[in-house]
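Re: that chain you flagged

S.,

Sorry for the slow reply, it's been a week of failed gels. I finally had a moment to sit down with the sequence you sent. For the record, here it is as I used it:
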Amino acid sequence: MMTVSRRLLAQIGLSLAAFPAVAQTAGSGASPKDSPFVAPPAGGLDTSIGRLRFARGYPDDATTKLLFDNLDLQRAVQAYIWALPLVSFAEWQDQHRTVFGVSETDMVVYESFRDKLGILTANSTTPYILGLHDLARTGPLVIDLPAGETAGGVGDFWQRSVGDYGQGGPDRGQGGRYLLLGPGQDDPQSTGYHVLRSSTNSVFNGFRILSTDPAAGAALLAQYRLYPYAQRNQPPPTRLIRPEGRAWSGTQPRGIAFWKRLAAVLEAEPVQERDRFFMAMLRPLGIRKGEPFQPDARQSALLEQGALLGEATARVMDVEKRFPGAVFWEGRRWHWLMLFNVNQRQDGYDALDERATWFYEAVGAAESMAIRQPGPGQVYLGVNKDAAGDWLDGGRHYRLRIPANVPARQFWSVTAYDLETRCFIDTPHERADRGSRNTLVKNADGSIDLSFGPRAPSGQDSNWVPTAEGRGWFAYFRLYYPEAAFFAKNWVLPDLERVG
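Prediction finished late last night. Pasting the structure tokens below so you have them in one place:
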């Protein structure tokens, strides 16, 4: 047995000398009394979390507290990473209710820079029409989607795709009727519906209008209907709400507020089979389904620290993606943003870290947002470093050259976001992106130089995206209806070059 152990350790460049506790008990005749837990070194065992003291194998009071606190803090950090997509949607739903005063069948129209300022990594180019509905309150819901250039869909509150509609859905942009069902709700088997069943009571329902014709967009919006299936014979009008300058934020709350939001949404939703171990981890921290969330001082302190370390960890995973295949063009800084299947099931496991890197900085995941072949849908690439490998700095100036003939049939855009908020960079200019739907100055070869920085270069205002001094930032490159040249990598986007 020892020969095998030594061989295995040698294969990974280690020896038993690195494990004195193992070395003490190795070989024939080893006595359990030589264990460091029975006969610890003088002064106790020094570990990465502090000094542990055992007497005859039993921990003293300080060691017990230290190890339990460490255990529960670890669980809080992991639970934060696990809960990111759920808390994100729950917070947004609460903002709809408390800031905008929506009912369960209202939709909110986000159109202007200010409207979208609270959305994680929003698209600046197209309007959003969004709702977060509780099917437990409404019963099954019907969506009457008119024909037109739309991209949208429904997701459950874990931000798993339930189904697309519009150009990327079964209606293919020709319009259709969709029936949304929650857990345990009976399918009425009515004809003429595309049935979408959610695993959670609350759902995210939203779409973007892709048409460049304002009149066509307005007509499409006027025809959109959302109503309870029970009222299908006389459907009420759908109320459209606009932010109208009201300040709001859909970002995950921080500190104990994160856990309050999590506890509330877990109470309202069925426990997913895959998540039962996480529910067990939360119990010592005061989050128990069927019981009020009333953490004591110890639990509150650990949860506060867990939220802090959890967010810090999520940000590191986000900006330093350590996943195979994350970089799109070899030798470039641009990386894929959605690195998981939209149902979050991977080969042999469920996405966790991959999921956290996306939902820390974004919301929503639909099939049409993660296509890997030409056709209707979108491609998202991100960048947070310049060509030299330095983090993007809002006080510096950068140039991004967009080569001619961008392989996007509908449009392309480059959008800048604040690293801290993961939303638009809030400047008086109220400009977040530049793209093919803007009037841009082109070079003689058809390429376009975009500028990013706190001030517009002389004579280049039309091609400029403002950043903020003292703030880190990152960018998304979006292609709508990507073409074959993109996936064949015949067209290559350069890195951002620092020019000042």
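What I noticed first: The longest helix spans residues 61-98.

Talk soon,
D.
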